[in-house]
Backbone:
């Protein structure tokens, strides 16, 4: 039955592509990846129309990113060409960061962070992320410090983590350790805990590092599957080091 069902579903999806004007790239996906292609098409193009929930939108975004990782970046570049606005520059810079293209992202942020936008907290955070990604730790630290000084009520965990990481990158490990020790009490996810453990391990505190790695593994065993998938990088490090 499965051998008959998949071709039938392929035909139905291809007809849907043509009738609804979906990108013709889907036809190639459906033809050359029969089972996976049908599943992806249903998740990306059909389910969101039936269920306008956040979960459906997240599924769509995840599937699109897997099938066509450059799609968001192309979309943002085109949007900026159509309308050169601050918001479109910001969205392109965020897409560039997500794609690991830190230099171009930093150039965009530098162009935005002037005039009335000079102290924009979101732009400063993006700029700090781009600078850190380029290994410019001093600039990353200066930028995240400016963020704290100009927007004292805006102190997201990501900004605090970047502060600690920049200090560590500059070799100011004692200060970085203090930052990590404060962050580990309230930061979500496992990155802070893992980075803190790695710093302790590098300084010879094997007992302290192992306790943190063990905590990561214990938390992962208690957590749902989606959390383990989201934090896989840090869980894998903890498993290897512990």
Residues:
């Amino acid at each position: 039955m499965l051998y008959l069902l998949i071709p039938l579903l392929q035909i139905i999806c291809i007809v849907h592509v043509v009738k609804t004007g979906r990108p013709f790239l889907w036809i190639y996906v459906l033809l050359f990846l029969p089972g996976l292609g049908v599943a992806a098409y249903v998740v990306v193009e059909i389910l969101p129309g039936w269920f306008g929930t956040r979960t459906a939108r997240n599924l769509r975004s995840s599937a699109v990113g897997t099938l066509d990782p450059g799609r968001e970046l192309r979309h943002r570049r085109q949007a900026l060409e159509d309308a050169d606005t601050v918001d479109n520059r910001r969205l392109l810079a965020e897409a560039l960061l997500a794609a690991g293209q830190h230099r171009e992202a930093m150039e965009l942020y530098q162009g935005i962070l002037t005039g009335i936008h000079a102290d924009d907290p979101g732009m400063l955070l993006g700029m700090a992320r781009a600078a850190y990604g380029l290994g410019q730790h001093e600039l990353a630290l200066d930028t995240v410090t400016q963020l704290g000084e100009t927007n004292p009520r805006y102190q997201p965990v990501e900004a605090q983590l970047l502060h600690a990481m920049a200090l560590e990158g500059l070799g100011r490990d004692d200060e970085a350790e203090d930052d990590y020790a404060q962050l580990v009490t309230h930061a979500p996810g496992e990155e802070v805990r893992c980075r803190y453990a790695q710093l302790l391990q590098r300084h010879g505190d094997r007992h302290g590092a192992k306790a943190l790695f063990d905590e990561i593994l214990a938390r992962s065993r208690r957590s749902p599957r989606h959390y383990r998938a989201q934090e896989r990088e840090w869980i894998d490090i903890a498993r290897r080091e512990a």
